[in-house]
Amino acid sequence: MDDDFNKHTRRRGHRVNSVWIHQPHRSYEVIESDYTDAEILDPEDLNDYHPLTVYPVGGKLMVTRGRACYNESDEALLLRVIIHPTLIQKVQLTEVPESVEDLQTQLREKLGLKGDFSIQYEDPQFDNGLCNLMNIAELPAERAVLHICWHEAGSPTTSQASSISSLDTASLSSSASSHSSSSIILTALRSVSEWPSPFPIPSFAYDVELKLRQGNETFEKTGKALSFTRDMKMDILDKLAQAMFALKAYPDKYQIETVSSELVRKYPCLKEPGSGTGHQGLTTSIKFKLGNYCSKLRQAGCNEVSVNRKRGRDEDADGGFTLTKAKRGEVNHVPDHPDNYNDDSLEEHRGILVTEMKKRSKDMDLIRSKMDLTFSLRRKEVVEVQAMVMEIQERWPALFLQEKICYEFLRITTKDLFGTLTAALDEHCPRLIKLYRARKGAFGQGMENLLDSLDEQTSDIAQQRMRMCLEGLPLFVRDSAQKLFLKCLDTDPEEKQTAVVKKEVLTVLVDDGGHTPSQMVHSIAVVLEETIVLSDLPDIPTAFVYLFGLLYALNTEFSKEHKYTFETVQHIFMGLSTNCSQRVRSLKTKLLI
């Protein structure tokens, strides 16, 4: 600043006019004020806690030099705290905590957290990868996403919630509800939806670690690879198989290769001489070891791998083999039962759930708690028994509540159904519409009608654009749009409306008696296996989101007529898989251009 600004100056009885105060690369405006007493002090006398702004102190108008304009109503730090995959809260702190311990104390006070925990944060410098918070200075400024990591003896409990999803707990005590369980039932469900990159190599036995350390030193000096024994190799492969299964029961080839490559990167002495990548043999060994580990788990009764066993003639009339492993990005496909629970005990809780659903005034907290607790039983029935939709409606009526569809999708994939899908549609809609317009002649009259209807809209444009993107997607990927988004009249009998319908969004139009169909919407519904499972939905995008969630909740395969449409949603919009068809990969490339 100019030296004149550093001088002590006092003005009385004069209006302070608008003036610019310049700093290198920055300039700040002192706004017009009616204060009659203004004072400019030396920089060292100013309170640097307040950034450059005009604010009264002791009846005087003060100006400080700082980092940015400050509003006393603004919060110093905005936090998104993930206590649990299904319990996420926003916290605003007026001051940045002085230490990690101070932050933990404030979180305990504001969120009512009990038990021992540590904190991880999403680091924007590493594509929001998780890092342990060891120093408060590492915390991103202004906004941060925190993950609460509970210690073994700790419990993810809060005074604000009566129940938490079974992703880590199946039931939680509630002082407000006498029907809640008094103990926390831990389960072995996964909470990570994406394969980590780089893969975290686990610690091996102490003697193995010593040999690997010595092998690295020798390799660095002489370039000679380590010749390890069979016992040493078995220990390494066993630990890797356990770490991989904890993330995904059936990792694909690419994911297995990331493990072997990271192992060689951490321990160069394991690099295979004469191999192109240096880890091809390790990749094969890890693949077979993982298969052997799954066989051991199957013998031990692990549900997720037991459903893939080959059934004999006494179990299956066809004597066939139905592969039911997770293939669409499911994180918790067929989890094991919570500790101290079996099929019979969980069946009792299912009965309580059905009884509660028959009441006129339903206890939603109880329903949520029982749905969490019986998740493993429900998935076992849905995946292994493969019951019809009507049977599932009868046994699990709460599964077809709109809110519970979202929670079930979250349990299975650890992803927010509505938030993720609607945000992806908002992001890709402009580009999709450009692609539709550029090639509308190749898709016939159907695409032209959709674009014309969008151009005629004068209100709620964002919602109409989203609807048009979804209805045009089957046309663009060469699926059957007529069998996914159907229309009928409200005077048609329900049997006619749902006849020969497997999976669809049904729009019921008002029958005004005219020769041309009315465009006034009576209702919007979701139909599965010729059964209306959801009705009176507000719009087509909402109905489509629930339809997609139900396909996962009921473990229903994507039909051939809509294969590429749902694959686009799964791979591009939801990010639930790494593999996709060439047609969907082509669309993804066009969206990124």
Keywords:
5-stranded mixed β-sheet, alpha+beta, 4-stranded mixed β-sheet, single chain, 19 helices, 593 residues, disordered N terminus
Write the layout of secondary structure elements.
Blueprint: H1 3-6, E1 9-12, E2 19-23, E3 26-30, E4 37-40, E5 54-57, E6 60-63, E7 77-84, E8 87-93, H2 100-111, E9 117-123, E10 129-132, E11 143-150, H3 206-222, H4 230-247, H5 253-266, H6 280-300, H7 303-306, H8 343-357, H9 364-373, H10 375-385, H11 389-395, H12 402-413, H13 417-438, H14 444-455, H15 461-476, E12 485-489, H16 494-497, E13 503-509, E14 521-528, E15 531-534, H17 540-553, H18 563-573, H19 582-592
Parallel strand pairs: 7-11, 12-13
Antiparallel strand pairs: 1-4, 2-3, 5-6, 7-8, 9-10, 9-11, 13-14, 14-15
Helix pairs in contact: 4-6, 5-6, 8-9, 12-17, 13-15, 13-17, 14-15, 18-19
